[in-house]
Structures are given as C-alpha cells and as structure tokens.
Amino acid sequence: MPELPEVQTVVSTLQPRLAGLTITQVDLRRSDIVQPAGADLCATCLNRTIRAIDRRGKRIVFTLDNDIRFYIHLGMSGQLTIADDSTPERPHTHMVLHARRGQETVALRFRDPRRFGGIFMLSSDSADPLGPEPLTLSSRQLHGLLQKTARPIKNALLDQRLIAGLGNIYVDESLHAAGIHPLTPADRLSPQHAATLNRCIKQVLRRAIRHRGSTLRDYVNADRSPGGFQRLHRVYGREGAPCPNCRRPIERIVLQGRSTHFCPACQPPLGKSKS
Ligand SMILES: [Zn+2]
Fold it and tell me: What is the distance in A from the centroid of ligand 1 to the CA of 264?
C-alpha cells in the first residue's frame, strides 16, 4: 500500500505538471469510486483551474480555484499517472481528468484494480480526522501521543488518527532503526525512546522519499516509474534473512492481521537489554 513517501513522490511529480491548468473534461467510468455517493465530480471540476496539489497523510489533495477540494486515496493498488494520448489505457482505469493551459494538455489517469482507493469530495467544513504529520512532529508531541494508548507501538503508529502517513513498511523500518520491539506498549516508551523513534521515523521517511518510495506490487510514480527504496529495506519483507546490524534472522509475526518484521536481537522486548 502506498504510504507517505510514495504519496509524496506522486504529489511532487503532479504539482508542477498540473497546477495552473484548467480542467476541460472529466471521464468518470465508475461513479462508485466517488464519495460521498451522489457527489457530482464532473460538474464540480469542469472549467475550474487546479490551484494546488498537496499531500496530507496518505491523501493526494486537489485544491481548485473556487476553494473546492477533493482528495484521491491510492488504497492498496491505486495509480495516478500523467499520460498522453499515445499511451494505451490500462484496464481498471476508473477516471481520466483532462486539463489544459494554452496549447499544453495533460491527462491524469486514476486506475485501481482492487478498488480500496477512491476520490473523496471535501466540503469547506469537513473535519480533518488525521493525526499530525510525522515529518514535522516534535519528540515531545510524539511522546504525548503515545502516552494516550497502551496498544502495541506497531499498531499505534499505524493508526492514522494518531499520526498520519505511516503504514506497514515504514513503521517496521522505523522501529528497527530505533531498536524498539513492535509489541512494546506505546505508553511504556520513555521520552528518550520517543525522541529516538521520532528521529528514526524522519530519517527513514526522508530516505524513502529520496529513493521515490518502495514498489512491492502495484505502486508507480505519476510518470509510471517504480520506486527504489524496496532494495534498501532492512526488515520489511525480509523474514529469515540476516539483520543488517547483527546477522540474526529477521522474524515475522502477525499483528492485527498485518505482517510485522523485526530483529529479536536489535529490538528486544522492553525491560530486556540488547544481547
Ligand atoms: Zn539485529
């Protein structure tokens, strides 16, 4: 599933290509990908200029010149790509948005085979249910958020209402970098642990953004290129392979139905010193 680095990569690619262009046509092939049900995406967007494209958590937020906003969530398999007419359209393309500035025309295609993603209209008074952004979070803030829950730290960090943008890959990688066992109760982390974790989350995310995210299955950037960070994963998807730090085999457990990868030596349970 695309997480913060993948979504940021898409946004950084789309923003210079689409900002300032006027939407001339919206081809919606499946109305059920638009929420709330019955919202008229086409009428809302037609002849409007795209003012900005930003990221919020894992959301790709479009702001139009009339302050109307909507966001696209890539879900598990979503792809948002810039195409020209000569690029064959692939199956499961649910929406094509055409935009123009002068002689310049761009088509933005949204395809999503598994349909966990979608297009979500926002109203001016839509509440933002997401927690703060990890790249700008202070250690004190993170510690305060983690104090609110006794859930395992892995599950707490996946909760988008607590902190927005992290998913399975980058939580596993950040916890390994910080030397924190994924089952550690979130409220048992000391201020020092939280500071280490905060630093590691930022390092992992920034590195992943530099490598244009991770491609495991479906993810591609808006120019249809895959990410490169999957080659640099230290624990995620590496069950049985040696830990890059200590050579012990990486272990995999399942937490709330999600694969969780960690090194039993570098990430000892709380209260046990590193061996
Ligand atoms: Zn290790």
Answer: 7
Considering 207, 239, 258, 268, which one is annotated as catalytic? 258
The per-residue pLDDT for 87 is 84
Q: Taking a C-beta distance cutoff of 8 angstroms, is the pair 42, 34 a contact?
A: no
Amino acid found at 19: A
- Annotated catalytic residue: which of 5, 55, 58, 212? 58
**Residue burial 152-171, b: 16+ Cβ < 10 Å; e: rest:** bbbbbbbeeebbbbbbbbbb
Give 269's DSSP letter: P
Read off the pLDDT of each residue in 32-43 and give the average, rounded to a whole number. Answer: 93
Residue 263 CA to ligand 1 center (angstroms) comes to: 5
Ligand 1 centroid to residue 141 C-alpha, Å? 28
* Known active-site residue 191: no
Residue 272 is predicted with a pLDDT of: 66
Mean pLDDT score of the chain, rounded to an integer?
95
Residue with tokens 């020092």: 192
The residue annotated as part of the active site, out of 3, 5, 6, 109, is: 3
What is the pTM assigned to this prediction?
0.94
Per-residue pLDDT reduced to its tens digit, 46-76: 999 999 999 999 999 999 998 999 999 999 9
DSSP state of 57: T
Strands 79-83 and 104-111: antiparallel
* Active-site annotation holds for 258: yes
pLDDT at 158 exceeding the cut of 80: yes
* Residue 2 designated active-site: yes
